[in-house]
Amino acid sequence: MSLVFSAITPIFLLVALGAVLKAKAGFSDEFWTMIEKLTFNGLFPALLFVKIAESNVHWPTALPIATAIVIGIHLAAAASIPFRSLLKLNPEKFVAVFQGGFRSNAYVGIAVVLGVLGDDAAGPMAVSMLAVGVTINFLGVVGHLYWLKTPGQNTGVRGVAIDSVKNPLIQACLLGAVFNAVGWGLPPIIGPALNLLSQAALPMGLMAVGAGLSLSAVRGDMMPVALSCACKLLIQPLVTFGFCILFGLSGLALIVPVIFAALPTSSTSYVVSRRMGSDAQLMAAIVTATHLAAIITLPIIILAIT
Q1: How would DSSP label each residue in 15-84?
Q2: Per-residue pLDDT at 252
Q3: What pTM does this model have?
């Protein structure tokens, strides 16, 4: 349990730093807007590409791991839909609840998996990262386009597919998978540059989250936040565990995808909300609440499956 707590604590410190910088250091809203744009279009895509391209993947277990994760994400997302009308959520709030219920913080996952399970878990971790990265980003984009219907964006199945593929996070995941599958790894010169760039993704993204946090948002939207927490921290790991068992997975091939399903909501969700028009304040509240709750739920789940 102490290993999990040690992996999560630095995240809160960086989030807190972002909040302090915005409140005390005089950085303007325009500054944080540019930081969000940089992380969404450059830093996080670099990180996803680097981690996926250079990982050692054990391909025989890749398909069942990825399938269990994809099913878990979709069912967790679907679980929130009936509550849109029950809670009378406007489109901006609902899309925040929707994506908050399935987006996993892969960077917490990396720290937890390697810290608790060691380097032997790198293969299942790479597969999990790819499955999570592509699925949550595609589904998140679909949710924004379908429910918000932002002017100037494509609609319909074909339009959603086109705009989703244009998403830099999805592009990075797919490109990293290609480089991994053909055995290229990181390209010379460009690869080391992307690796250096990727190292700024986590601190910059987390500080951007901190700059947008609001405890009053958590108190003011308790039901939507609780719904997202339940979908993310309970439904998704339970469904993923069930399908892992159904597919005959065991050992690290079982433990790693369940850990990724049980992670708190990704800190990039706040950046995506700001960039694509959903309720960023509520999204920040969901990110905060799931990280706080995961301090309790994540160790319990890890102890239960190991």
Answers
A1: HHHHHHHHHHS---HHHHHHHHHHIIIIIHHHHHHHHHHT----GGGHHHHHHHHHHHHHHHHHHHTTHH
A2: 93
A3: 0.79
